[in-house]
Amino acid sequence: METGTIDLSYWSLLFIYTLLVIPLAVFLNTGVDLIRSSAIAIVRMTIQLALVGLYLGLLFELNSFWLNMAWLVIMLFVANVNIISSAGLKLSYFFLPTLIGVSLSTLIVLVAFVFIGINPQPLYDARYLIPVAGMILGNCLRGNVMALERFYSAIRKNEKEFSTYLFMGARLSEASSPYFRQAIKAANAPHVATMATLGIVSLPGMMTGQILGGAFPIVAIKYQIAIMVSIFSAMALSSYLNIRLSMTVAFDDFQNLRREVMK
Amino acid sequence: MIEFKDVAVQERGKTILHNVTFTVTEREKVIFYGKSGSGKTTILRTLMGGHSVSEGEIIFNGKKLDKHSLFSVRTSIAYIGQEPVFSEGTVKEALLFPFNFKANAALIPSHSEQINILTKVGLPQQILESDVTGISGGEKQRVAVARALLLKKTVFCIDEVTSALDPFSAETITALFSSKEFTILSVSHDPRWFSIADRFIKIESGTIVLDTQNRSETEM
Ligand SMILES: Nc1ncnc2c1ncn2[C@@H]1O[C@H](COP(=O)(O)OP(=O)(O)OP(=O)(O)O)[C@@H](O)[C@H]1O
Ligand SMILES: [Mg+2]
Questions:
Q1: Which residues on adjacent β-strands are paired with residue B156?
Q2: Bridge partners (DSSP) listed for residue B184
Q3: What pTM did the predictor assign?
Q4: Ligand 1 atom 9, closest CA
Q5: Around Cβ A85, how many Cβ atoms within 10 Å?
Q6: Quick one: average pLDDT of A169-196?
Q7: In chain B, which residue's Cα lies nearest the Cα of A170?
């Protein structure tokens, strides 16, 4: 099934980097101060991917259960830390609740997709487990940053309204429900929109990669559908769990938002 | 019924209330007055659990205000804030909003009760369908009063609720709270409130500087 892909030579890759003069020209011309951060981002991307490439090569070759699990745990930790800090919250308070939320939702979907759906031999085969986990986590990351950031900034912004609800006898879950709904919607709506236009507006990265990698389009499409549904489910569950669980540490005994939990 | 014992409140490292001690007995009507920024709103909000108490304690109906008794305080006292806040929607939705909460679900007012309460605060019944963000400041304050009255409590925390009203409306609203049954803690500088009150507490820089039953002392 796999016909060989034309390998992208290092020289060609180097040539593709020269495309970067385009964003550089745009930013210079418009005076947008994104040049420094773009340069850092490009360098980071290159180094990180190079390292991951080496590491994944090793991971696939050894394909050991414990090594794969360890890598999965590292991915979950890094995603979690990223979510908390990008949402403007403090790690020391939220680390545990959101780790539970992210891990639980990723693992449930991962088990369904990889263990039951694909059913590779061995089940923990790094070739399936690691990239699928990466796709799910990468997408959940954006959604969860949005969910947590929206939720806590809405409560902070509408503090008077929120406390008025509490003073009128609302439970914490009742008083926070308008902001909860907004946050869940903001987190999940982009993925819904993406699914609606998929295939027409864009060929998603994973599918493009598979097709370039030599898979039949129909195989690539089946995987793509499975991954979109998995991401959607993981995103909905993790945004829900993360807000709910984070609320256990974010409010004081009187249900007021603790200022010290935000950056 | 309500007792503050040497209460202090801090926000962001700054002390905004200190050594606040007073007692309000049942059916008493107490006015808090004093300069802007002196801490009047903070006293009412602290009673409702809106600030954590850093020193001292608050007793409500014999129980210390803490996470266990908080809910009973919030369901026994109707609070009307200094700036009325509503979610988006019509006046009707705003009036009914608190009845979405489990604690108030048994009290859902009928249409005639809604109209009745609006009449009492001097608003026409057509206002029910108006957009709550579009009505005037004084109308908003009266909607907030109507909403608090629908909760059928006998203890009220009222923060400058007549400050945006014309003398006639202010008189109407004040009269609604003069009922013998009511226990009232009200922040106001309005002479109408002073005339229905039993006690006057003056706040200055986060603490009580005068606590008297004699109105003439408040004019000094
Ligand atoms: N959540 C808060 N965080 C920080 N400072 C606060 C907070 N709430 C109140 N303060 C400060 O406490 C002081 C007292 O505020 P408060 O609202 O109680 O005054 P007030 O007497 O009601 O004034 P006004 O007559 O203008 O309504 C003010 O200096 C205010 O800035
Ligand atoms: Mg005030």
A1: B78, B184
A2: B29, B156
A3: 0.86
A4: B42
A5: 14
A6: 93
A7: B101
